[in-house]
Amino acid sequence: MSTLAAPVATPGWLDRRFAFRARGSDVRTEVLAGFTTFFTMAYVVVVNPAILGLAGMPIAGVATATCIGSLLACLLMGFLADAPVAMAPGMGLNAYFSFTVVQQMHLPWQVGLVCVFLSGLFFLILTRLGVRQMVMSVIPHHLLAAVAAGIGLFIALIGFKNAGIVVANPDTIVALGKMTAPGPLLSFVGLAAIMALTLLGVRGAILISILITTVIGIAVGMAPVAPMHQGWADMGSTFLALDPAWAWRLFGHGWGVLEVVFVFLFVDLFENIGTLVAVTRKAGLVRPDGEIPGLNRMLYADSIASMIGALLGTTTVTSYVESATGVEVGGRSGLTAVVTGLLFLVALPFAPYAQLVPLAATAPALIVVGALMMAPLVEIDWNSAEEAIPAFLALVMIPLTFSIANGLAFGITAHALIKALRREFTRENALLFVLAALFVFRFAYIAGV
Asked: Do the domain assignments include residue 388?
């Protein structure tokens, strides 16, 4: 008498590739997580072109580059690192690109893209050589938290400025704008919409708010007039537009270009690791000893994505903390990131409509994103002068000088000074003192000493 053995369920090719069952997930959950992540970060398709447009970059081209860059970056993260982490051009560094690199330093945006590409290349090299751990050990956690929050203030200030809520004033430096003007009124509608939708638990509150305020802005004549024949195929306006020849000439004429590369590299490195740690911890992917399996592959994906983004015509591509929303609904593998990336492909035909979005419609998104970036401040011991003073300098100098580089310089230099006063001249602190010396030289160079 023969008996038929019960069929043994074999994993499909998706599970063999992404191993989500072993992590307690399934295809349906991974797809849902991918959709959730996309709708919480899709605002980047509109906000990134709006910010880079202030640097003179063609908005339609940047919107297309944002979609394609995010697609390729998410696919890299999904297939190379198998992590539920989505990537797109980062908020903060795009503002630094427009307001500091282009407007203050007067570098052409094509040269700025070269700096973005080089920062991605150096990021890749540092990861390959294992230098990441050495650099991470030099900068204390409280300083990283302050820099992250300082970038949040920087982004929020740009949002208030774009809304017309904060304006320049020769007597008081800044002042309150005319609250009854169309810009502030539209921005207040957007802020109210984001708060209401968030309290109701609606996914994609920021994106929905942008859509609502854009429709209102178009209805009242606030939308910029742009020729809509520049469709998504117009990516030629930014694709391979970076200018390495000009950048190479500038390398021989001062600190400027090197500083820009350093800021892009530094901020991307630490912001990225912070995001990856937060998201993987939430997903339960961190080992008991604190090690993150596949972290180097995640960093490889990030560095390669930044280089691809620069070639396409957008600023540093980085991991998004909004990925935590996908993890919250059960995303555990790279399939989540792949689904998010494919949704950026779906959004591609709508990219040129970013030209119609008023600055006042994207301003609330910047303000809210800036507010959310304040969370790391609770990790600073404000009762300890050793932590509080460098952290405070980094925090406030970023928005007050409109420069992430200046915030980094003040924070790191103050931290090094404290170490020197305490006579902690150890081998571990050698790199810290080198960085501080470079920043002091930078200040002297800017002052013309």
From this structure: yes
